Amino acid sequence: MAGILFGVGVGPGDPELMTLKAVRVIRENDVIAAPGDDVRETVAYKIAVQAVPELAEKELLPIRMPMVMDKEEQKKNHRLGAKQIENVLDQGKNVVFITLGDSTIYSTFSYLQEIVEADGYETRLVSGIPSFCAAAAKLNIPLTEWQEQLHVIPARQNLKAKLDQPGTYVLMKSGSRMAQTKKLLAESGKKVRMVENCGMPDEKIYGSLDEIPDNAGYFSLIIAKEL
Amino acid sequence: MAGILFGVGVGPGDPELMTLKAVRVIRENDVIAAPGDDVRETVAYKIAVQAVPELAEKELLPIRMPMVMDKEEQKKNHRLGAKQIENVLDQGKNVVFITLGDSTIYSTFSYLQEIVEADGYETRLVSGIPSFCAAAAKLNIPLTEWQEQLHVIPARQNLKAKLDQPGTYVLMKSGSRMAQTKKLLAESGKKVRMVENCGMPDEKIYGSLDEIPDNAGYFSLIIAKEL
């Protein structure tokens, strides 16, 4: 019988933000996959190994998923990655693919899952803490209260979105083109805060729009709330 | 020295979806608060006690926070609840307030935190898995991929929102006025799925708009995705 492919979210950085289920699923299985040329160099591995030290002894399966903009090349890489995973599943072994944050939100796992599922294998998802929840907790503020809406906008959409909906906006990975993003935020009239590298050793908190530098890092998460 | 008030998310239902940090913070502290007349009867307690059995031996602090629509009465209840908590903090003990899902998303804790913080006490937040992440994992689908936006709309806003933004919509607690909500969803042209009582013994999954009954329960979470 073929193995099962698990997509496991390890949360945004602090290993203590991993769920009991994520820890158990990693512990109980022998083959751990992650996106990259070297699993040990991935952020997801570095988080998970702190909570599950025996991960260091497991069989590691690196899945090459470089960030390319060409859709056809992306698809080719995803097919190759899916094939690598299916080779292991065919041996009757489960594969646990670890992914940053939650496994259902902007995860590279989704592409692999779709292919592997379509090829007739069983797949399952294990939730992780999304970065925006951890960032709000770090800022010690609610993301949404009472009847407020929540809008999460990924990096490349930041500048197209108008930020004119009611409620809270989360801008993910807003490091690039920050000057333009700051202009949009100023126009929104919302209260802006930012966390750079949330849960990492070099984490940095910005309490207002004025404090945010134009050259912030890639893993910058902005929370813009109604006043 | 006064104690610290923690707001701890226990996730949406499955005790295995609690984080290592939530488990530790509950375990390390003696006074556990929850909203309701009887802490043992709250959903948050019933989840947490399965992962931390020693919770049953701890001092339990029920905070009365009835669902009332009158803003003044709400505020009065929140002040009373904050006072109860501050009385314990003044004894130098920490208070751990447990809350369903994540502690920054539509949590009753936010009201208490604001008051207790303004009164000069230290407060901290511990993240939990939001219900919409667990629901997507249960449906075995991504919430958002690539450059999709995510829009979370709480119950009472469901019928005012137009659902005309690109990306994925999550409608929380959409049980009431489901017939009207279904009409809106049909007009949106998105692919609709629903999970009722996610992670609970009576959990139920609906794979399409047509399957969703007009009389679904209060804890119904709808995910509407772009086709």
How would you characterize the overall build of this protein?
The structure is a homodimer of 227-residue chains. With 227 residues, the first copy, chain A, is α/β, with parallel strands linked by helices. Chain A is built from 6 helices and 10 strands, in the order βαβαβαβαβαββαβββ. The longest helix of chain A has 19 residues, at 71-89. The relative contact order of chain A is 0.16. Chains A and B meet through α1, α4, β5, α5 and β6 of A and α1, α4, β5, α5 and β6 of B.
Low-confidence parts of chain A: none
Distance between the termini of chain A: 56 Å
Q: Compute the gyration radius of chain A: what is it?
A: 19 Å
Q: Tally the beta strands of chain A.
A: 10
- How do the SSEs of chain A run, as a string of H and E? EHEHEHEHEHEEHEEE
SS class of chain A: alpha/beta
Rounded average pLDDT of chain A: 94
Structure annotation, total helices of chain A: 6
Q: Most extensive interface: pair and counts? A: A-B, 55 and 55 residues
How much strand of chain A? Answer: 15-25%
Oligomeric description of these chains: homodimer
Shape of chain A: elongated
Helix content of chain A: 25-40%
Please state how the strands of the largest beta sheet of chain A are arranged side by side: 3-2-4-1-5
| Main β-sheet description of chain A | 5 strands, parallel
